[in-house]
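Practice problem: XRE family transcriptional regulator
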Amino acid sequence: MIAAAIQRERSRAGKSLSALAAEAGIAKSTLSQLEAGNGNPSVETLWALAAALDIPLSLLFETEAPATKLIRAIEGEVLESEQSDFAAVLLSRSPPNVRRDVYRVVMQLGEIRRAQPHPRGTVEHMLVCSGQMRAGPEGQEELLYPGDYYTFPGDHPHTYEAKRADTMFLMVMEAP
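Answer key — structure tokens:
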């Protein structure tokens, strides 16, 4: 795991084995052994590598996520509301170092989803794909059409209301 992370980050930085070893103050043979998965690096060695790569130490312990991911329109784990005909599919979970989730949401005509405030600092981003809806923080709701993008603080009570059948939108939730 650490070996692959060192290779990945060295490649991203565009540094040769020799250059990274010199910047980190370690022997080139030591770095070569670490990238080959041999050896047991000390925390000091890892700190030196992270500093030379200008990355947080934690990146040397993270695995790389797949570069591509395809979820067809009929696929995905559906999360349904108990309050209204509101179905969201989580398209992308937030990685540990980022607080962002991406959902595809489908609502039916006349349905209203009243959402309680999310944690302080949460921001919602919406992009309407089809249908028509009214959404936003209480008192600041906007009528949205396909192609419309709306962002608002998600840490206040807010609503989503479908004005047409099968209204679909993309929702991204960010939290600090």
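Discussion: Residues 2-13 form the longest helix (12 residues). Students who identified this feature from the tokens alone can consider the problem solved.
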